[in-house]
What does this fold into?
Amino acid sequence: MIPVNEPLIAPNAIPYVTDCLKTGWISSSGIYIDKFETAFAKYLDVSFATTTTNGTTALHLALAAISLGPGDEIIIPDLTIASCGLAAVYVGATPVFVDVDPATGNINPRLIEKAITKRTKAIMVVHLYGHPADMDPIMAIARKHKLIVIEDAAEAHGALYKGKKVGGIGDIGCFSFYGNKIVTTGEGGMVVTNHKPYYERAKVLKDLAHSPKRRFYHEEVGYNFRMTNMQAALGLAQLERIETYIHIKLRMKKQYHEQLSSVSSLILPSQALWAKSVYWMYAVLVSKNSPIDRDTLRMKLKEKGIDTRDYFIPLHRQPVFKNVLTSKKISYPVSDDLSKRGLYLPSGLAITDKQIKTVTDTIKQMLP
Ligand SMILES: *Cc1c(COP(=O)(O)O)cnc(C)c1O
It folds into this structure.
């Protein structure tokens, strides 16, 4: 089976992680936490970065750090992982889903203002499959309405919007280091920001919110979202190789592009003029006049030993959010459509040229 994702582990991961084991610094204190956070902040060109246990807790922590809570609404793109909506629910806020742009699958800036109410406090932006969202109009709307912008850059480490790294453009950025992400720690996450108060609040909240006056005394609800030194050691080694990893993704994209350009039944991923996508996943759409639909294509590829994944299921369709939907009348034609026709091909960092060729040859046998 050609897996949809297989990670690459940097050679330095072995000595760094071994160092934690040999010295006994296996928990959430130790030099690698600090090194990883510092290196990540430097890479993104932001002032502050703090590690978390995963990308979902990074989002949860970010929303807690900006004090989003009951009565507040947060605008979230409809086509994303459940974590985005769940983070809002965890803090007691109301997620308001907004339809996406047909070209990138990212939140459609032109639909944001219509979704703003007196209760709206924040906008969450997701850089889907490695392609940056259109940040300038989003930031302009946010400034105009005094909203906080949270970026979910879990799929877009190193992607550029007008030359600036995503995750560091909004008020607070979140990353995941799950095994299929461009930088991995196995499981892990990061919250980044240029605002010191958000950073300091995140640091306190992720460590049980001990009172500053007295340790083991608690005046508010904190969490244990602490990453281990071992994970940070792995993350540091992976981060040292990020340029190589991005290069691998771009090379993969070039090969898929070239080999699939003649397949008229597939719409290949495009890149906005202002964007440098990192192509976290090579995501295609099955065209409306394709002789076989997306589900059939996925099944037939699986029979041939090629694993692929459907696009996310829109958040407005998730039973878990049924009770929090503010309006049942809003429709989401674009995210519904992309979700039905979208598929991503094997895109792991360990993918070989030969595997890409097998994938594209097999697709060409199935689709005109
Ligand atoms: C992976 C991912 C997350 C969640 O990260 P976990 O580390 O798996 O919790 C959040 N948002 C997006 C867009 C993701 O792709």
In short: Residues 54-56, 80-81, 83, 126, 152, 154-155, 176, 178, 189 surround pyridoxal-5'-phosphate (CB under 6 Å). The domain at 242-366 is CATH 3.90.1150.10 (Aspartate Aminotransferase, domain 1).
